[in-house]
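#onboarding

Welcome to the new folks! Below is a worked example of what a typical request in this channel looks like: someone posts a single protein sequence, and someone else replies with the predicted structure as tokens. Don't worry about understanding the tokens yet, we'll cover that in week two.

Example request:
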Amino acid sequence: MPPMPRLLPAAILFTVLAVSPVCGQDALPPFNPAGILTITITPPDSFLGFPLGTRPVRYDAAVAYLHLLARESGRVKLLGMGKTYEGREQYFVIVTSEENQRDLERIKGRLAQLADSRKAAQQSVASLVESTPAVVWLGYGIHGDELSSVDAALEVLYQLAAGTDEASRRLLRELVVCVDPMQNPDGRERFLAQMQQWEGAVPNPDAQSMHHSGMWPYGRGNHYLFDLNRDWILLTQIESRNRIGPLLEWNPQVMIDSHEMGAYDTYLFSPPREPFNPNVPEIMKKWWKVFSGEQARAFDRYGWSYYTREWNDEWYPGYGSSYALYIDAVGILYEQAGVEGSLVKRPDGTVLGYRETVHHHVVSSLANLTTAANNRVALLGDFAEARRRRVVRPQDPQVFYLLPGANPSRGAALAQTLLLQHIEVAVAEKDFRAAGLHDCWGERAAAKTLPAGTLIVMLDQPLARLAKAILEFDPRMNSSVLKEERKSLEKENDSRQYDVTAWSLPMAYGIESYWSEEPFRGSAKPYAVQPVQEGTVLNPEGTYGYLFGTSDDRGMMALSMLLEEGCTVRAAKESLQIEGRSYGRGAVLLRRSENRPGLSGVLAKIAASSGITASGVNTALSTQGPDLGGNDMVLLRQPQVALVGGPGVSSAGFGALWHLLDSQIRSRTSILTTEQIAGADLQKYNIIILPSGNAQAYSRVLGKPAIGKLRAWLEAGGTVVGIGAAAAFLADTATGMSSVRLRHQALKELGLYTKALLLESGASSPAIDSVAVWEGKPVPKDTARPKGSPEDEKEIAAQDERARLFMPRGAIMRVDLDEEYWLCFGAGGRIPAIVYTSGAFLARNPVRAAGRFSPAEKLRLSGLLWPEARERWERTAFATREAKGRGQIILFAGEPNFRGSFQGTTRLLLNAILLGPGFGTARPVEW
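Example response:
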């Protein structure tokens, strides 16, 4: 073994040597036998002190090697993109010929001209195509527990930096290769620490061993456990935001996205199969055929197994290889059978070693780079043509309108998400008339006046394809896809859908939005991201106290900060008007008499950082609505939150909640595991949140003692929030925690729930019969009783079981809200909610259904929703609240903050957390 280079720090030396080498192969074949390499560039093996591919490389060692390559080779430029949540720098590497390196800015400028036909005359495009290198973006390791591609990245970089043969030199002349070698450093380090912890002295090929499986929360996600490969269009996470700028600045023609899959699989690469998103350029099918053909030939030389299409569809635009298509690059996915840095014995008796998994990715990358270099001119020409033609057809949206409404911070946040993706956004300078409007509720307007401040996204721009894919409300699969999906459900009891079928960002943000096939004809200016707006306190010497609204999300942020500061805070049950200003339900009141001296200074600081405007008031007497000294001003309590994770809990669902609480509203949160509940001191908390996961696992892991303890805590004044599968666990008749029922467990009582729903609807808008009131007209009695033979009940149960098969799989559905109820304050009368579950919930008095899914004909807003699902989910409960002793239980049928992006439904969750302990419980003050 060669000596370790001096430049490797002792800390890195420890991480390199801490894991014993495993391979599963006696010989180590060269990664690129055809390459001729210069000895002036240090190979990874010599630097690391072990053969690459015999164990996974840790972050520090990988970064140190990148720095070494940049020092040793004029072909390599190392650039930082920003830091992760845990403080690790994200790097990308530009590798090209030394001549191209000296000319990078000019090359980037030429590519920008090709990317925007407004910057290059048509006659100059041909010249630019002939004289400009193509750009290939190689992305590795976006899932932290998918290890092999990061090691492959180091070898690919070495081959490019050290190659002296003509094939290597040609790659560097024809291409600028941008390498993102480790897209998820935090997740990788978490997973490798687990692998190191559970590794034995003797390598174990059993894929079920903990050395292969790891333990909750594993390493797939980043620090907040987000799946970064679903975050490309959402940009909720810092790693995604760090990456998107450099990627779009380089306008790549090819993007590679390297992954791993199950240990017993082989290797998958593009092309994908249907369904294809309607915004996918048709030309990509030609390029998939070209690239896959040459990649297959490269694998055939080794006799390796592989396949294409099988399960990888191209519907959701938010994966790395998919995102490429909407910026007019050829997107290619790699999926390698993973062995977690070790070796695995497979069902056929063969042993797959880690080095071979690395080798597969190296060969794939070099093959794709060769294809790109051989087709440079055609790739650049097709890229320029796609940008020139764009995607808009006469019947398609020509423009999107995003209205500021009562929650302008959401519009600003969506605009920033679009601008980060280089999508051009304008803002209306004055009110204007817009024609041919379609909204997300499926309603149309021939013409309407839209207000000044409306955000405008016109689709006569270079990234029109991306803008349309992100913003459009309801892309639809073709009939052949529906037929195959239906066939699979009917015959196999299984769906072919890989992920969600809907994602529209305007719906996710919960803002009023429209599209029109008519172009915008008004006065607008380019929208620029505004600096963080400092809030203020008007009349800071108000003698009675202070008020501010919470219709804008900034108000909820300020409320959270005030509660964290220990201020005594109240919220209004009803809207009110006082001293010339109006406030909606949920407005925040701080009485001077209830708070310590210096309240004005605390509020001023919080207003400045959150961006709210608070007003001092000199009286408690309102001109409309409740007075400030009355009982309609509800005393809130500081949330003491326990967020439950561990076995049975979805790490992604947990992570979205953790990110919301910790990173967004800055609320101090304790994390408990499901295994801790039975022995934990629950009196420290007034809210316990159970994220989605697996209902049966919740029941199994918690067990009767923990469930009994949770029930006692709840009835003594606690708030339990159950989400998705956790809500199903709480509503299960076997658990008995909630009076809400899963539909399939209440089939005998469907008639009673139907009657209760009619009464509930009547209570919201009661019909008054004055004769009955004043003259004593008798009220008709309902003498009907549920009927049905055992045979009828069996048939109903069979129908319900069949309908569950057609569950919503990431469809966006309309939820109608009870605006007068505190759980819905600030959310409006209806919201889009994304739903991916088979659990439909029934609720009746005394349960309060704060939000119900709409009637069947209005239920589907976007995505695939079969008629069986429409009928089963219509008017079922999305959000419920019920009293339990002195406490309350709040259930959500789906994940309200799904992937950290559905801000409309997240508002209900924030109300549950920030308003719930005050509005919904009778917990003792001292508790």
